[in-house]
Write a structure and sequence with these properties.
The structure holds 2 protein chains of 2 kinds. Chain A is of the alpha/beta class. Chain A has 3 domains: 219 residues, 3-Layer(aba) Sandwich (Rossmann fold), CATH 3.40.50.970; 106 residues, Rossmann fold (3-Layer(aba) Sandwich), CATH 3.40.50.920; 166 residues, Rossmann fold (3-Layer(aba) Sandwich). Helix content of chain A is 41%, strand content 16%. In chain A, helix 11 links the parallel strand 9 and strand 10. Chain A is globular, with a radius of gyration of 26 Å. By secondary structure, chain B is an alpha/beta fold. Chain B has a single domain, classed as 3-Layer(aba) Sandwich (Pyruvate-ferredoxin Oxidoreductase, domain 3). Helices cover 41% and strands 22% of the residues of chain B. Chain B contains 7 helices and 6 strands. A 6-stranded mixed beta sheet of chain B has the order 2-3-1-4-5-6, with helices on both faces. The longest helix of chain B is centred in the C-terminal third of the chain and has 23 residues. The radius of gyration of chain B is 16 Å and the shape is globular. The chains are: A alpha/beta, B alpha/beta. The structure holds thiamine diphosphate (TPP). The site of thiamine diphosphate has 24 residues of chain A, from helix 5 and helix 17.
């Protein structure tokens, strides 16, 4: 195991989890977290060790399954993108009250700069909210090591541990040194009868325990290998870095031979003693956080200008208020002269993403635009997936994209408000993630909505993972109570154009719940399958 | 030894295969590697890029700073210009001449090629044609890697070994085709450098 292996940060976490003896990984895909679970799914070692790794229907079901595995004494990891934690938040916050039995790590991948997301929320807020330990590695190797540390910590303090990463760490490769592989835990149940029964009387006891653990968690953070204070110049400039910000600082420090004080934070709760004694040795402090100014705000305090040490960062404009960090931002914040970069070319045009040639969503949007051609108030509620690209020209076909499942429920609310027609377009995986319950609401209210499920038989946006309701969407809708006459299926192909427009027009005219399943396989997964088939034929 | 390389193109063109070959060769050479890629939304036909850093010293940042890249390798000409801000004053640009016009406002191709030609250090190659001659247009990424191979200080034999290893699962024909494409690219570079 001496040789380093080149892994994405996400893959390093997956390998770390396998090596730390997990019995299962639970997740719903979401950039930049998807590759963690995919790595475990591909891993021969994981297969040999019978590690559970199939996809969950959404982040909440994933979280609860992982909690159940930890209840049974085994180590489990649950992974999601930052907004996934909103979906799993109920389970997450309450799991801090129950605490855990086997080790439980929730890996959350934030996406500052919103490369592939609706927002850039900072999961460290959730960590503080739940009052559990949070680990924020600065490098891929630290991420690998943090998984081992996290499981030990989780089992020691009997709490779930959050592993917070961001896009750059997740999607960047580096050489990783592995540790020895650990055996999985054996089945074993919580010793305390009421630990997981959060009836108010028990919950108060459990909550008090969580509060009582806080000084311990802080003390552990004071001695964590992920936290390090280095004083080079007493009463000079100090920089406090959180997570990957350390790398951007060190890039600039090593290139310019700077002698500055550095406090590197990678484990929370914030080690107060270490932080205070660091700040006391500095004349001013720059705070570098990859995300919201969570700790900058805390360090400034309510009377931010009365302290002897000035704090700089995102809140005073030293660092841009939004977006991810990079070495250039750090260089500017430290007043280091910029390299004279090339001014760039004036010829370059933007090249936004687009729906693939041959994609079934394309045909659906052509049909839908035709079906709605004569409508005065054309508002189509949509959702998150490849089909969101229907918002761009040449389609300009949809008006909303908010959160998974919101198309169905927003269309219902708008219909309740009087909008006619009220149409939703949702993907198959998004529908099973969070659309079914909304459809039930619409059915119960007999709302005048037309829900179009653009079913490409996969979770395409994140790379073509299994779709949890594959082949069963029709039965699901029927089971929820959609009337058979208004549950229609069509195949979005050019040759079916007129027929499909007619179906859409008929259902849009219906004063009640109608569902149209527009079904044709994703061109990417189809091509991949054909290629694999050809290869196996050649081998034969 | 330290090289900062930006590899650019359009989603689906195979920039990650170029990166994978260099990564493996660098690791075999006991160098440190960091390589930041783009996954997700922009892979759908949008502009994609990867920051690849190799060094004999530990590397901190996953991202390359503006004005610090030694080399830009681009499988699409306009995409090579998108990252000029990152290029060192004496950095090289290696680009394909064949545009992908999946946007309605794609600029005049001649103007683009002209601008690349007028950079202090650049090589334009008809990677698509050379790749076709090697066996498949899909290998145009390896042609460009071949052109660039003269500029990042990794032994050519090691690059060939990496290709053999990375494409190993796809069979001997694919390996040979990619090696031919690599060599065709390298010859292009040698022509320019010799003069
Ligand atoms: C709560 C939440 N989880 C995950 C994601 C990431 N995500 C965005 S789109 C998508 C896939 C949607 O699949 P589907 O509905 O089948 O549409 P397709 O991309 O296949 O067209 C995922 C997983 C997200 N944005 N929000």
């Amino acid at each position: 195991m001496e040789e380093k292996i080149l892994l994405l940060g996400a893959e390093a976490i997956a390998q770390g989890a396998i090596d730390a003896g997990i019995s299962g990984i639970y997740a719903y895909p979401g950039t930049p977290s998807t590759e963690i679970t995919e790595y475990v799914q591909r891993s021969k070692e994981a297969k040999k060790r019978n590690i559970h790794s199939t996809w969950s229907a959404n982040e909440k079901t994933a979280y609860e399954a992982a909690l159940g595995m930890a209840y049974a004494g085994k180590r489990a990891m649950v992974c999601m993108k930052h907004v996934g934690l909103n979906v799993a938040a109920d389970a997450f916050i309450n799991s801090a009250i129950t605490g855990t039995n086997g080790g439980l790590i929730v890996t959350v991948a934030d996406d500052p700069s919103m490369h592939s997301s609706q927002n850039e929320q900072d999961s460290r807020f959730y960590g503080k909210f739940a009052m559990i330990p949070v680990l924020e590695p600065s490098s891929q190797q630290e991420a690998y090591d943090a998984v081992h540390l996290g499981f030990e910590l989780s089992e020691k303090v009997k709490l779930p541990v959050m592993l917070r990463i961001t896009t750059r760490l997740s999607h960047s490769r580096a050489g990783i040194k592995r540790k020895n592989i650990k055996n999985q835990n054996i089945l074993g149940f919580p010793g305390k009868r009421n630990q997981f029964i959060l009836l108010p009387a028990n919950a108060r006891i459990q909550y008090q325990e969580l509060i009582d653990k806080q000084p311990d968690l802080e003390e552990i953070a004071e001695h964590s290998v992920l936290n390090k204070s280095s004083i080079k110049n007493s009463s000079g400039l100090g920089v406090i870095t959180f997570g990957i910000a350390y790398n951007y600082l060190m890039e600039v420090v090593s290139e310019n031979n700077l002698y500055i004080n550095i406090l590197k934070i990678g484990q929370y709760p914030l080690p107060k003693k270490m932080t205070q004694s660091f700040i006391e040795k500095c004349s001013k402090v720059l705070v570098l956080e990859e995300g919201y100014p969570v700790y900058e705000e805390l360090l400034r305090g309510f009377w931010e200008f009365s302290g002897p040490v000035r704090i700089h960062g995102r809140l005073d404009g030293t660092i841009p208020r939004t977006g991810e960090l990079n070495p250039d931002i750090v260089r500017a914040a430290l007043d280091i002269e910029k390299n004279e970069p090339h001014p760039g070319s004036t010829l370059v045009a933007g090249r936004p993403p687009e729906l693939c040639q041959g994609c079934s969503h394309r045909d659906l949007y052509t049909e839908l635009n035709e079906a709605l051609k004569d409508v005065n108030e054309k508002h189509v509620f949509s959702d998150i997936g490849c089909y969101t690209l229907g918002a761009l020209p040449p389609y300009d076909a949809i008006n909303t994209c908010v959160d998974m499942g919101a198309s169905v429920t927003m269309a219902k609310g708008a219909a309740d408000a009087g909008l006619r027609p009220s149409v939703a377009v949702i993907g198959d995986s998004t529908f099973t993630h969070s659309g079914i319950t909304g459809l039930l609401d619409a059915v119960n209210d007999k709302s005048a909505v037309t829900i179009i499920i653009s079913d490409n038989a996969t979770t395409a946006m994140t790379g073509g993972q299994d779709s949890p309701g594959f082949g069963r969407l029709y039965d699901i809708c029927l089971g929820v109570g959609v009337e058979k006459e208004h549950l229609r299926v069509m195949e979005p192909l050019k040759k079916n154009f007129e027929m499909n427009v007619k179906v859409l027009k008929e259902e849009i005219a219906y004063e009640g719940v109608s569902v149209v399943i527009s079904n044709r396989e994703c061109i990417q997964t189809l091509t991949r399958k054909k290629r694999a088939q050809n290869k196996s034929e050649i081998v034969k | 030894m330290k090289k900062d390389i930006i590899i650019a193109g359009v989603g689906g063109q195979g920039i990650l295969s170029i990166a994978a070959v260099i990564d493996l060769a660098a690791i075999k050479n006991k160098l440190f590697v960091k390589q930041a890629e783009v996954h997700g939304m922009s892979q759908r036909g949008g502009a994609v890029q990867t920051h690849l850093r190799i060094s004999d010293q530990p590397i901190f940042s996953d991202l390359i700073s503006k004005g610090k890249a030694d080399l830009i390798i681009s499988i699409e000409p306009m995409e090579s210009l998108r990252y000029l801000e990152f290029l060192k004053p004496d950095g090289w640009v290696v680009s394909n001449i064949n545009p992908i016009k999946n946007i309605s406002n794609y600029p005049d191709t001649d103007k683009i090629l002209n601008e690349i030609n007028h950079l202090p250090y650049s090589i334009l190659a008809d990677a698509d044609t050379l790749a076709k001659q090697a066996g498949s247009i899909k290998a145009s990424n390896m042609v460009l890697l071949g052109v660039a191979s003269e500029f990042f200080g990794i032994d050519y034999a090691l690059l060939k070994k990496s290709i053999t290893e990375i494409f190993g699962r796809k069979g001997e024909d694919i390996i040979q085709m990619n090696l031919r494409a690599l060599e065709a690219g390298r010859q292009e570079a040698l022509k320019v450098i010799d003069i």
